[in-house]
Amino acid sequence: MSLGRFLSVSALLILGVFILIGLNVTGPNMRQTAQNAYDKSNLADAKITTSTYLSQSDQTYLKNLKQIKQLNFGHSKDVLIKKTQHALRIESVPTSLSKMTLTKGHRPETANQIVLSDNLRGKYHLNESINLTGTKKQTASGLKKSTFKIVGFVKSTEYLKKDNIGNTTAGTGQLYGFAYLKKQAFSALNPNFARVSFKNVSGNAYSQKYENKVSKIVKSLQPKMNHHNKLETAKLRKKINRKLITGNQTIKASDSKLSTAKSTLQVAQKKLSTQIEQVEASGNTAALTQLSAQADQLNEQSKTLKSQKSALLKAKNNLQQLQDKKKQLNNMSLTIQGRNDYNEGYNNYGEDAQRIDSLGKSFPAFFFLIAILVSFTTMRRMVEEKRIEMGTLRALGYSKAEVMREFLVYSFLAALLGTVLGSFLGLITLPRIIFKAYTANFTFNKLQLDFHPWYIVLSFLIAFLSTVLASWLAARKELKTDPAQLMLPKPPASGSRILLERINFIWRHLNFSYKVTARNLFRYKGRMLMTIVGVAGATALMITGFGIKDSLNTIVTRQFGHISKYDIVTAYNPDESSQNIKRAKNIVRDSNNVKRFDGAYFANVYAT
Q1: DSSP symbols for 28-53
Q2: Looking at residue 75, what is its pLDDT?
Q3: In this model, does residue 301 exceed pLDDT 90?
Q4: How distant, in Å, are the alpha carbons of 162, 521, 569, 578, 603 from that of 573?
Q5: Residue 429 in 3-state DSSP?
Q6: Which among 32, 111, 328, 508 is least surrounded, fewest beta carbons within 10 Å?
Q7: What confidence tier does 269 reach under pLDDT thresholds 50, 70, 90?
């Protein structure tokens, strides 16, 4: 038996098994890697957010929802790093759901300690101070303090992507990182979001069982929350209206009273001033002393009026704040989102794993088809070349089984070697290469490698059939012949005129070698078919590879050169005063850096 042929067949099978197992196990391995991380952090099934704060009524309502197994309330605020446009999302330290993973340092132990996301390690260091400020000039950050001591760096399964942590209305519009503080560090008493885990939810992340169940629960809860939010909004609006009516009446009465008192005081002061001038002219010391005492009383009354005026201005300011709060009730919302919606990295990672699954259903078929065709042809040709040797062994008294055993062992070892080495490379090497490429922008560091016996068994069966079966069929056919006939060379297949010979003006211009080659192609139709299929498959793989490369290279140019031509999007609050909106538009219009701008309407909606 030929060692070169043995190694060639084994190499082809190694390639086929390598691609088949490698592409089909990478997706499950990626999902299992993520599942281990989600289990470790106890990633929340969903997140409930509000445009304001969760009142005690909201919290009680959410706790009583029958679908909710566990509920963790938290504080969240987007702030800026002082003297920069870098935005951070600050959250209270999670307790039992979506727990953070320390990469360096320790958890915050006091209200002035902070831990930053791991992507900021190197830009900031342990025991260094960081100054935080509000998202706009002269606005509070929502924190009791502005300076915090960095005591650690963390990762979170809620922020899986390195290059796209999330969007924000602060700074550049893109989050620079995230951080955690003790809840005592927030100035607000009520939380503004809640992490949720559901009852009766099973299955791993990204499985149809899990995703469908969570989607169904979220879909059923959103209308209930909308109804509750509507009732709460109506209650708040009614409460604010009562305060506004009472406040307006009080201010109106106080304003009138203050105006009357001011007029009376001015008259009294004018009258007293005249009397003082007259007494000073007469030189009556006793009367002057009495009038001075009255002047002191009027000064006290003036101070009291000033204090009342200040209180009135404060009351008017509070009333204006109530008006603004009433206006904001139109945007008050209570929203629940599953992992695919509140966690962008979760969704992207799952889609990447699905893409690899799709490749595993198509690419291995091409590779294995070529390997099967070549192996099948090679094994049959090997048996045919050993025809005379087989006849000699039969003539010497060896049985058919003993003669066939040599070919079966040879082909079995080739299949076994190809399966073992291909499985090893497919289970370890290719998944790691693909994982490293696909997760370059994710926070996962190490792929969870699992043993997938069914893919190994399937690969061995295919390799076994393409070698051992081919050898057995060919040997069985040859061994049916008498030993005397078997010891003679196999007669060539009978030839006949081919179609090309009938096309005279082409046939007569071909030389002898081309004519022989053309006739042999059609004499051995099995070899011709396998050659054509093999070459076609290999060519298809190459063209597919180049096609994917060319297609991907043009996406960026088409998307950002022809479709999305803008450089930046700016947004303003339509509920702001017309003066502020006009000022914002003028800033854009008058900027020397703006070449062209267009106005647009947009709205955030919740959809499934």
Answers
A1: HHHHHHHHHHHHHHT--SEEEEESS-
A2: 93
A3: no
A4: 30, 76, 14, 10, 11
A5: helix
A6: 508
A7: low
Contacts (Cβ under 8 Å, ≥6 apart) of 366: 537, 540, 541
Helices (H), 64-201: none
Q: Which residue has the tokens 């909606």?
A: 605
Q: What is the DSSP letter of 104?
A: E
Q: Starting at the edge strand that comes first in sequence, how are the strands of the sheet with 334-338 ordered? A: 68-74, 193-198, 46-50, 334-338
User: Among 44, 113, 406, 55, which Cα is nearest to 231's?
Assistant: 55
Instruction: Give the pTM.
Output: 0.75
Question: What confidence tier does 133 reach under pLDDT thresholds 50, 70, 90?
Answer: confident
Nearest to 379 by CA among 468, 460, 464, 477: 468
Cα dihedral across residues 417, 420, 423, 428: positive or negative:
negative
- Residue pair 380/529 in contact by the 8 Å Cβ criterion: no
What pLDDT band is residue 499 in, cutting at 50, 70 and 90?
Answer: confident
Higher pLDDT, 508 or 116: 116
What are phi and psi for residue 160, nearest 5 degrees? Answer: -90, -25
Neighbours of 186 (CB within 10 A): 23
CA–CA separation, 473 and 465 (whole Å): 11
Phi, psi of 196 (to 5 degrees): -135, 140
Kind and range of the H or E run holding 195: strand 193-198
